[in-house]
Amino acid sequence: MIGTSQIQINLYYCSKFKHNSSSIEHSWFTLALQPDTRIAEEYKSTEHFVEYLSEMDKCDMQRSVESLRHQLSIQRLPVSQSANEMKRYIEGQQENDPLVNPVDKRCNPWAEKSKCQIL
């Protein structure tokens, strides 16, 4: 589980666009979940990351931060433990599984009752 000292959600959004004749100056954006997590690595360069964040409005960023906070609150389990739990559940439900044990054809309400009705 992630410790509270590692949970650092900082979202700095300062949109400074100077529309001079020669340059457009972007401010820096920081979105840090943990010290070792680097979200900007997903993007080809810092400029792409800044461009992505500049397209988001304040509402989108707040939703993103809330989603990240929720994801951090979820308890993480090792794959070996969750795989064993899933295997136990599947084996426990195997006798009720219609794909493994097909339902009796006589109990099927959509099946034809008999081929010949007149005799």
TrEMBL record:
<dbReference type="InterPro" id="IPR015898">
    <property type="entry name" value="G-protein_gamma-like_dom"/>
</dbReference>
<keyword id="KW-0807">Transducer</keyword>
<dbReference type="GO" id="GO:0005834">
    <property type="term" value="C:heterotrimeric G-protein complex"/>
</dbReference>
<keyword id="KW-0449">Lipoprotein</keyword>
<feature type="domain" description="G protein gamma">
    <location>
        <begin position="49"/>
        <end position="119"/>
    </location>
</feature>
<comment type="function">
    <text>Guanine nucleotide-binding proteins (G proteins) are involved as a modulator or transducer in various transmembrane signaling systems. The beta and gamma chains are required for the GTPase activity, for replacement of GDP by GTP, and for G protein-effector interaction.</text>
</comment>
<dbReference type="GO" id="GO:0007200">
    <property type="term" value="P:phospholipase C-activating G protein-coupled receptor signaling pathway"/>
</dbReference>
<keyword id="KW-1003">Cell membrane</keyword>
<dbReference type="GO" id="GO:0031681">
    <property type="term" value="F:G-protein beta-subunit binding"/>
</dbReference>
<protein>
    <recommendedName>
        <fullName>Guanine nucleotide-binding protein subunit gamma</fullName>
    </recommendedName>
</protein>
<dbReference type="InterPro" id="IPR039227">
    <property type="entry name" value="GNG13"/>
</dbReference>
<keyword id="KW-0472">Membrane</keyword>
<dbReference type="InterPro" id="IPR001770">
    <property type="entry name" value="G-protein_gamma"/>
</dbReference>
<comment type="similarity">
    <text>Belongs to the G protein gamma family.</text>
</comment>
<dbReference type="InterPro" id="IPR036284">
    <property type="entry name" value="GGL_sf"/>
</dbReference>
<dbReference type="Pfam" id="PF00631">
    <property type="entry name" value="G-gamma"/>
</dbReference>
<dbReference type="GO" id="GO:0050909">
    <property type="term" value="P:sensory perception of taste"/>
</dbReference>
<comment type="subunit">
    <text>G proteins are composed of 3 units; alpha, beta and gamma.</text>
</comment>
